[in-house]
Amino acid sequence: MTGPGFTIGQDGACAQVSADEVQTLLARSRIVACEMIPWSSNYTFAAQLSAAGQPDFLAVYKPRRGEVPLYDFPDGTLYKRERAAYVTSVALGWDFIPPTIIRDGPHGVGSVQLYIEPEPRADFFGYKDCHQADMQRMALFDWIANNADRKAGHCLKAPDGRVWGIDHGLTFNAAPKLRTVIWDFAGDPIPSALIEQLEAFRRDAARLATLRRQLGELLTRAETEMFFRRLDSALEYRRYPAMSSRRSMPWPWF
Ligand SMILES: Nc1ncnc2c1ncn2[C@@H]1O[C@H](COP(=O)(O)OP(=O)(O)O)[C@@H](O)[C@H]1O
Ligand SMILES: [Mg+2]
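# magnesium ion complex -> structure
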């Protein structure tokens, strides 16, 4: 068992499972109900998953078929980028993305991510300054993953105080696309603890090979190469990038 523990199910019937077990459950459970999330940008669904011996639990299902075409991302690839972001976060040991897998569902193949119940009134611009380390890590991840869609609503604060990142469909483009609400650290030195984590990853041949293989199955060769180049740039430059244009900020913010 690796990774942090997760609680699945509702108050009355809960179970503690590891990140690996969550991935197995996401992949193998039956999808017993599936409702569209009305404020999503693509056709994104809340799915109820059911497996023998486990409490039912919720996940977010994004079928390939429900992806709205974009001029700057190849069609039908966003669900793979959701998984690519998750495996990258795991490879770096940065556990802020809910477990995400790819499977078949009622609307065809897509990504399925564990649903994290948000704290009801958490406001990103209100809590971000009290979560500086989380924001620094997420900002660095977004830079190297080339996230074009870090809106405020793509950060979720859970009632236990953890901050999660969701919606990584617009990542790993080969061309620079960083678009985020987290510009608080623009031009600042990257904290040494994060640099050390990146360096440790860069030195670890086994972890590198695993991530390279995983990304190779999800992205184009050029996209995978550019990811590793951005990682090297971060290690060379050791500072957060500066805002380059008006397009560096998502609109709307949420
Ligand atoms: N893992 C998750 N846990 C909790 N809520 C989520 C999760 N993923 C998505 N959501 C909710 O669903 C909404 C739409 O999801 P999002 O990932 O933004 O999809 P889209 O790709 O359609 O923009 C989010 O704004 C959020 O409210
Ligand atoms: Mg979204």
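# post-check
The longest strand covers residues 30-36.
The chain has one domain: 5-248.
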